[in-house]
Amino acid sequence: MEKRRLGASELLLSEIGLGCMSLPTNRVDASYIVDTAIDAGINYFDTADLYQRGMNEETIGHLLKEKRKDILLATKVGNVWNSSSDSWHFDASAQHIKKAVKESLSRLQTDYIDLYQLHGGTLGENWEEIIDTFNELKQEGFIREYGISSIRPNVFIPFLKESKAVSIMMQYSLLDRRPEEWFDSIKELGASVVTRGSLAKGLLTDDWKNRVQKTNGYLTYSQEELQATLTNLANSAPSVHVTALQSVLQHKEIASAIIGASTREQIAATIQAYNQIDHSNDSNLVELTKLDQYTEHRL
Prior knowledge:
By secondary structure, the chain is α/β, with parallel strands linked by helices. It is 36% helix and 19% strand. Strand 4, helix 2 (55-64) and strand 5 (72-77) form a beta-alpha-beta unit. The radius of gyration is 19 Å and the shape is globular.
């Protein structure tokens, strides 16, 4: 699998990364997915301390500890579970981040995190304190690089400008093209995009006919628009799954497309689709979809 450099860092990410949020809690079942990914050349694994109240990090730590030198681990910080309910609150204080990184390191069974990402944030955060804390963690060797996961341009653009962050995780797919207007700015600031949601909850796979029946539309697409768009994509290319991945990876600003999987069959289908991409020929099927823009949280 081809690799791409993450921003101005030395990290080389596989073009497909495994999003670990959907991994089964059963470690045997999860190992089938992780091993299939590794065998295909995937070296980038993304999790968060929020997922399964930390159990997801524990699963990843257990499954990857023997392969640590060959893979890149990314996790996230900022969301804290409330003890009395199935809800959480945001805390990006220096005190919390310094405590949380050590807890993540313990669960991941590693001495360092390759990419540590702020898991959200709004305009009201103490951004100077957050950036200073990330820089301190980097200097101390707890993390190699840091970034942010956000869909708020008025948050992530200033953050990239004022910090040494090398990445921004954003939802991006053929059905959600809102990030496109920000790609040039992100690149100019020395960062790369890492995508999530690039298969749009399975709508952009070859199982789209079944998936679309279970929805009431997607983002600004009504049910009728979604059905028509997916039908046009399917009629214009041999595989919607291949087209979805190629449409993301044809953007050089994107370092990796993070794809989730809850079964070995799902990750195998993504790997098969990736192997069918014609990297020498950009997809023009993007013209069949909407070019929406963020209407909130703009600069």
